[in-house]
Design a protein that fits this description.
five-stranded antiparallel beta sheet, alpha+beta, 259 residues, single chain, 2 domains, Arc Repressor Mutant, subunit A, 7 helices
Length: 259
């Protein structure tokens, strides 16, 4: 990973100093002339003078002084304040470059932080967003079967198109998240022996939030939470209560994957 940046200082809400202006100051100090400094930088004399005026106006003391007359016919010099400003800006720039280098050195940590922030900020209408690592991809003629390890020995199988696998850049070992609507999940007190649904996950009921017609059943799956919406009638018939072991069942085609 490569990271680039520039230091730019403002005062009173106005642009004051950047690397270009500092270089102009250095050349003025070296050549003793704004016109020569402007020529070496490939900028117009007016643009150089405007930059010098802006810096002098925004600084508490002038950075550049115009000398008239004298044996050499006058010239332009950096004031003591100007020399100090160049020196301090260079030191600041050096510190900033060290900071950027440290980011590159810790790129893996920053990448992890970015992914976590992205996950936290992700908003969807689906109640269930489970993160994990892809441990298997089985490609078919049109669709692919993607297996996501969500930890604790639990895996989720999703069926998505081959185009989706390619566009999302899915590979074994990559992180991904599974989105499952709460209404897509069926709850069973017994583990089904034969069922067409690919996903049968053992969970423990952690909370039941009753509604007028339906109830939301929250379940713990290892360190993750899974929510299902079922009818109050089904809750009563299955006699589901907190701390019960249940099985969350949903089709692979009902799992949406994201990167």
């Amino acid at each position: 990973m490569e990271i680039e940046g520039r230091v730019w200082l403002k005062t009173s809400g106005k642009s004051f100093l950047g690397s270009g202006r500092v270089y102009l100051l250095e050349l003025i100090g070296k050549t003793g002339s704004i016109s020569k400094a402007a020529k070496e930088m490939g900028m117009s004399y007016k643009a150089a003078w405007d930059a010098v005026d802006a810096m002098n106006n925004l600084s508490d003391e002038p950075l550049v002084a115009k000398n008239t007359g004298g044996k050499g016919g006058g010239g332009t010099t950096l004031t003591a304040k100007g020399e100090e400003t160049v020196r301090v800006f260079k030191a600041l720039e050096n510190k900033y470059e060290q900071f950027l280098a440290s980011i590159v050195d810790n790129a893996a940590d920053f990448d992890t932080l970015y992914k976590n922030l992205r996950r936290i900020n992700m908003k969807t209408s689906a109640r269930n967003q489970l993160f994990g690592t892809i441990d298997k991809i089985v490609k078919g003629a049109v669709n692919s079967e993607v297996e996501l390890d969500i930890g604790g020995g639990n895996k989720i199988v999703a069926v998505i198109t081959n185009d989706s696998v390619e566009s999302l850049g899915f590979e074994v070992g990559e992180e991904a998240y599974a989105i499952i609507k709460a209404s897509w999940i069926i709850i069973s007190k017994e583990k089904p022996k034969k069922l067409s649904a690919r996903n049968i996950i053992e969970a423990k009921v952690s909370d039941i939030i009753p509604g007028a017609v339906n109830s939301e059943v929250k379940m713990k799956v290892a360190d993750k939470t899974l929510a299902a919406v079922v009818t109050n009638e089904a809750i009563k018939e299955l006699k589901i209560k907190e701390n019960d072991t249940v099985y969350a069942i949903f089709k692979a085609s009902n799992v949406i994957l994201g990167a």
